[in-house]
Amino acid sequence: MFRNKRILAVVPARGGSKGIPLKNLQPVGGVPLVARAGHVARACGFIDRAVVSTDHADIARVAAEAGLDAPFMRPETLSGDRIGDYEVLMHALEACEALDHCRYDIVLMLQPTSPSRTPEHVRDTLAMLLDNGFDAVWTMSETDAKQHPLKQHVIAADGALDYYDPAGASIIARQQLEPVYHRNGICYAIARECLVAQKTIKGERTGALVITGHVVNIDTPFDLALADFLFSEGLVR
Q1: Which of 9, 145, 176, 192 would give a disulfide with 50, using CB separation of 3.0 to 4.6 Å?
Q2: Are strands 161-163 and 153-155 parallel, antiparallel or unpaired?
Q3: Angstrom distance (rounded) from CA 104 to CA 195
């Protein structure tokens, strides 16, 4: 428990990734991604139940070896690439509450594709949720100025170039840009009532915990190679 709150951690790890086949089993620093998430969940010490939500037997096996429970297999209806996080988390919450005969107060989502996660990240996310009375807290990273929305463009069917946002025409130096942030997948902490009553992972009051340092959220083979390099060089732990 964490401050007398019962905590359920869910590691979503379906088998049908397209960009990198069986992405969640790919090794980073010699350890499969789903196993890294399991190791962090086990090291936290305040998580009451940590489960993997998967539709793939090998992912379930590797997750279990890393300390995650695999009390159910994700149904086919929740295994496509258009299924949202909310549906996956609600399924896991309902399944675990039925199996464990208890009520969980907070659900954590630990995406295995963000392997630089630490127990401290998870603890800080939970603390922010409770200290501020938020419905949810998401970890975020500051977006590099080169990827700022006001520096993006669109290309029409005839090849004509335009600004994604017309306000971009007035930007000369990066110092004019107000910082923007993106989700990094390290940790989501969501109050049960946010999921059950508001039916969303982003409630009416959602906080942002900004993570500094190297964070790789793996979508492509390049991301995977970069994460492996950062671990092999000791730039993340």
Answers
A1: 9
A2: antiparallel
A3: 11
Is 25:34 a contact under the CB 8 Å cutoff? yes
What is the C-alpha separation between 96 and 107, in angstroms, rounded?
11
Domain ranges of the chain: 7-143+180-232, 144-178
pTM over 0.90: yes
Residue 53 burial (CB count, 10 A): 26
Fold for domain 7-143+180-232?
Answer: Spore Coat Polysaccharide Biosynthesis Protein SpsA; Chain A (3.90.550)
pLDDT in tens, 72-103: 999 989 988 888 999 999 999 999 999 999 99
Long-range residue pairs from 212-215, CB within 8 A, at least 24 positions apart, any chain: 213/116, 214/116, 215/114, 215/116, 215/141, 215/184, 215/186
Q: What are phi and psi of 155, to 5 degrees?
A: -125, 125
Residue 67: helix, strand or coil by DSSP? coil
Query: Nearest-5° angle of CA 22, CA 119, CA 220?
Result: 30
- Rounded Cα distance between 150 and 176, Å, is 10
**What pLDDT is stored for residue 198 in this prediction?**
98
Secondary structure of residue 50 in the 3-state scheme: strand
